[in-house]
Design goal:
- Chain B: This is RNA polymerase subunit sigma-70.
- Chain B: Belongs to the sigma-70 factor family. ECF subfamily.
- Chain B: GO terms for molecular function: DNA binding; sigma factor activity.
- Chain B: Keywords: Sigma factor, Transcription, Transcription regulation.
- The structure holds two protein chains of two kinds.
- By secondary structure, chain A is an all-alpha fold.
- Chain A has one domain.
- Chain A contains six helices and no strands.
- Chain A is elongated.
- In chain B, helix 2 crosses helix 3 and helix 7 crosses helix 8.
- Chain B is 68% helix and 0% strand.
- The chains are: A mainly alpha, B mainly alpha.
- Chains A and B meet through helix 1, helix 5 and helix 6 of A and helix 1, helix 2, helix 3, helix 4 and helix 5 of B.
């Protein structure tokens, strides 16, 4: 193959296959994985916000005993503080994220490490929700006990280890499921980006 | 339409050869290529405010286009690696040289077997960039760019030789 000969054909290439629109409104939505991620995160941000507001009424929906409401709202307050912190971080990150103008290696490094960082943040946020969910389940159980006139001391002995085992199994499943979920959604893309970055590393052998 | 948008589209129109070349190098399917063209225009528009005019518009456009194409990873090779030579239109403004055109098509076929980084390197080489400039665009050293370019050219020679042997 003679590259010099090809170059003249290359320079004179027909560009009729490229259609530049009259206006940018005619373009479809961006399909880049990073843009899809940003859209997903924006949707999740709104969903989480609505969920957190809705959880304010959980004691009424879940019939939590009035004596336990103060405990519930103490937990709810902590949930709000943690959620505001994480949701704000996610929002700021995805608003600022534009990574196409830098040189290729820097651009891909930014995409790769920001993806990983946000997956880690997502994991941490999800794991922080686990104690809240378990405590709400605990409050629902306690409410039923109060209604039935029983408590931890008077329930059947076999129920205590069973409760502990169920709690541990549910926690383990949850902690396992969150990374699997993010790997399914973002794992392939991260692997592809990583392989390009590896290729860009110095190799003189 | 706002003046900024009009100015942007005028510049893109003037440099649409970049879209054509990046599209041909990175995607072999015509429909996927149209998608990639659109995606690059979107990303160029989103980054347009960051273009300060410190470098040539074409250099900036190449960088955004290549970065988008490298990290796009969508609908890879719907119909395998083959490109039908008879589907490519003849150039209108230049004297038609069937031999050169055939060579270019062979080149595009062979390029489909390269990795995303190798595609970027050969693209910049074909545009006449020096080793240093290729390194600057990709964020690698001049030496690394030289080594990678030589390897990529050797790889292309091997692939095209295989194609020629098959014919």
């Amino acid at each position: 193959m003679n590259f010099d000969k090809i170059k003249s054909a290359w320079d004179n290439a027909n560009t009729n296959d490229v259609n530049i629109p009259d206006t940018l409104e005619k373009l479809r939505r961006a399909q880049h994985p990073l843009d899809k991620l940003k859209r997903n995160m924006r949707n999740e941000w709104y969903m989480q916000l609505v969920s957190i507001i809705a959880l304010c009424f959980a004691p009424q929906f879940l019939n939590i005993h009035p004596d336990l409401h103060a405990l519930y709202y103490a937990m709810y307050g902590m949930l709000i503080i943690v959620s505001i912190y994480y949701l704000n971080l996610f929002r700021k990150f995805y608003q600022e994220l534009i990574h196409y103008t830098a040189e290729t290696k820097d651009s891909l490094n930014d995409i790769y490490y920001n993806f990983r960082l946000n997956i880690a943040r997502y994991h941490a946020f999800s794991f922080l929700l686990l104690p809240y969910v378990l405590m709400v389940v605990g409050l629902i159980i306690c409410s039923r006990w109060i209604e039935q006139g029983t408590d931890m001391v008077t329930i059947a002995a076999y129920l205590k280890p069973t409760g502990i085992i169920v709690t541990l199994v549910v926690s383990a499943l949850f902690i396992t499921a969150v990374p699997i979920w993010t790997k399914i959604f973002y794992g392939k893309y991260l692997t592809q980006i990583k392989s390009v970055l590896d290729e860009l590393k110095e190799k003189f052998d | 339409m706002e003046p900024k948008e009009r100015a942007f589209l005028t510049q893109i129109e003037a440099h649409k050869g970049i879209l054509h070349k990046v599209g041909r190098i990175y995607v072999d399917d015509i429909e996927d290529r149209k998608d990639l063209h659109q995606e690059i225009i979107i990303q160029l528009w989103k980054s347009y405010d960051k273009f300060q005019g410190q470098s040539a518009f074409s250099s900036w456009m190449y960088r955004v286009a290549v970065n988008t194409a490298i990290s796009y990873f969508k609908k890879e090779k719907r119909h395998g690696n083959t490109i039908a030579i008879d589907t490519v239109a003849e150039p209108e403004s230049e004297p038609y040289d069937p031999k050169a055109d055939e060579q270019l098509e062979l080149f595009y076929r062979a390029v489909q077997h390269l990795s995303p980084v190798e595609k970027a390197i050969i693209l910049y080489f074909m545009e006449g960039l020096s080793h240093r400039e290729i390194g600057l665009q990709l964020g690698i050293t001049e030496g690394n760019a030289r080594v990678k370019l030589n390897r990529t050219k050797e790889k292309l020679q091997t692939i095209t030789k295989k194609y020629n042997d098959e014919l």
